[in-house]
User: Which sequence fits this backbone?
């Protein structure tokens, strides 16, 4: 039908991405997230760059770096920018109220968490389908682990109550992160205490980082059928 958007959720994600991109000011150092929603944000920043906005970016993955470079965006690293003004990224789950997150279904959780931790403000952009009452309701917790001894690490994660799956790509090869590590997708079901679980996972030797982002979110821009909503942690 004329005028009807054929991809309403895609349009909603684009609007959230544009809203976040509009938060970037001249001279800022910005963390550039990873995933389909973050890619829309990077495209929006590319359009603002073409209009004359100037900032520097630290990407959270090789694919986000490639996208930003192709748009002419200046990329830097932590050797010159140990702290960022703003980081913008997507999420796989956002817990209502706390705004705690699960991230990493795209395999970028380690660099994303480092960038989020280095930013004065961490803004998350999602469609309303990502909102949950409890983390773990729909998504596993991705955990980045060293390849050496991953089987033992997996066993210890299982002892925390998770069903553990080594991430394999569609072509049947091992999924290897930008850092050369493996991902274990850990299904816990609804998580009552994300902070405690994040600590317990982090205590396991062989674990590099988990996709639980607890008490890190400054604001979430949610794109829904009623429009955009901006949530701030309770
Ligand atoms: O590792 C990937 C990231 O955590 C993504 O931000 C997350 O998976 C959300 O991606 P999308 O916006 O494509 O749903």
Assistant:
């Amino acid at each position: 039908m004329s005028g009807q958007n054929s991809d309403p959720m895609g349009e909603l994600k684009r609007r959230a991405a544009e809203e976040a991109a509009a938060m970037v000011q001249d001279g800022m150092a910005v963390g550039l997230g990873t995933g389909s929603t973050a890619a829309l944000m990077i495209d929006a920043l590319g359009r603002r760059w073409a209009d004359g906005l100037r900032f520097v970016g630290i990407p959270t993955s090789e694919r986000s770096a490639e996208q930003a470079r192709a748009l002419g965006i200046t990329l830097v690293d932590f050797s010159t920018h140990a702290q960022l003004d703003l980081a913008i990224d997507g999420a796989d789950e956002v817990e209502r109220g706390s705004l705690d997150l699960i991230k990493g279904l795209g395999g970028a959780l380690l660099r994303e968490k480092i960038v989020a931790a280095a930013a004065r403000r961490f803004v998350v952009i999602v469609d309303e389908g990502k909102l949950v009452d409890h983390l773990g309701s729909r998504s596993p917790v991705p955990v980045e682990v060293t390849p050496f001894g991953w089987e033992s690490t997996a066993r210890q994660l299982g002892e925390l109550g998770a069903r553990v799956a080594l991430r394999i790509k569609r072509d049947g090869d091992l999924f290897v992160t930008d850092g050369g590590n493996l991902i274990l997708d850990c299904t816990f079901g609804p998580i009552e205490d994300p902070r405690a679980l994040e600590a317990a996972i982090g205590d396991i030797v062989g674990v590099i980082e988990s996709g639980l982002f607890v008490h890190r979110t400054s604001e979430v821009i949610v794109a829904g059928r009623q429009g955009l909503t901006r949530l701030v942690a309770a």
